[in-house]
Structure to design on (398 residues):
């Protein structure tokens, strides 16, 4: 029992490092970039607020939340991969598999299995819960971008076409939210904070 | 419907501000103090790891997680209250009640009611779920303090007696974790990073 609790505490100590993994998204007050721990909190609460937009409407919100809490833990070893950086994206899977083995391997086996299974469900995007979770993971940075006058889009020269291509998973996981975002991107282009698709 | 989604997005934008509410706890690498959003994420994942230590052992983990995700949202308006600052603690309740009215009032009424109810359950510490949630909320800063050589304890001249008095709620919510912490505090005193009770 002591050994089991020691392993649990060891993992909990390791979690602290996700607070130092920086994302490309800016906080809405533009004071600094966001980290992956606070991002995970934000989208987990979003699941509580927006669960009704899942297709069919009756997802297991508890599992969506747990997936979102766990989905970025591998970044403790693998780092955050900027979604528009194709070279970085290509090596992402191998890095994250190794990270999952090490990090979830710190836990007692039954709990480690559960964490790995939630992470794999999120990554596979097959279940309604995983589709909604992925949609929320995409929605939040788009909102933060829009409400910082497109700061990260502009810093990285991102176009409307790239945002649409990258985030089309939202169309399946939360069609009404996708329509909302499609409209938001039109407004972003009209405001001159996002490059139009053709340019 | 458009109005409902607008209210949901309005609330989600407001949530971003919790990432700028600073706590007294240091990150384990001592690079900076922690904020309330990433703290909330940390303890929500801890609930997934440590739920078995609830007395009786069969709490609704999903509700524990949701309580922990929501419990600090009022700090967006009310700020974080350092638990050893008795003057600040005395005005805390009124500030947080006003914050709950404004913040949860941004949401569509059905969702706002649910958030308020989770926050009140956490604050009232009556249910097994609320007791475990409160225990985890106390456990995490103690671990961060211990593994930063008592940085926040030392900065604020905190003694073992104060830590015990403040965190005794853990004895009810997670007795085995409380025993673990009691032992950790002994080691902290022995290492000279926490003032002994008598001094």
């Amino acid at each position: 029992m002591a050994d089991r609790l020691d392993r649990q505490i060891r993992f909990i100590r390791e979690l602290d490092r996700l607070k130092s993994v920086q994302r490309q998204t800016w906080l809405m007050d533009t004071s600094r970039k966001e980290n992956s721990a606070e991002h995970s909190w934000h989208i987990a609460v979003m699941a509580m607020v927006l669960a009704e937009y899942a297709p069919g409407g009756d997802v297991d919100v508890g599992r969506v939340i747990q997936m979102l809490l766990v989905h970025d833990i591998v970044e403790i070893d693998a780092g955050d991969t900027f979604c528009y950086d194709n070279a970085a994206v290509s090596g992402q899977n191998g890095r994250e598999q190794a990270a999952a083995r090490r990090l979830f391997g710190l836990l007692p086996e039954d709990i480690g299995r559960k964490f790995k299974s939630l992470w794999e469900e999120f990554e596979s995007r097959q279940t309604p819960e995983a589709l909604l979770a992925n949609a929320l993971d995409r929605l939040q940075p788009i909102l933060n971008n829009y409400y910082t006058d497109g700061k990260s889009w502009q810093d990285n020269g991102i176009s409307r076409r790239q945002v649409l291509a990258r985030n089309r998973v939202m169309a399946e996981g939360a069609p009404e939210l996708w329509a909302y975002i499609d409209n938001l991107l039109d407004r972003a282009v009209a405001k001159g904070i996002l490059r139009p698709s053709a340019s």
Remarks:
- Chain A touches chain B through 46 residues (CB under 8 Å).
- The radius of gyration of chain A is 17 Å.
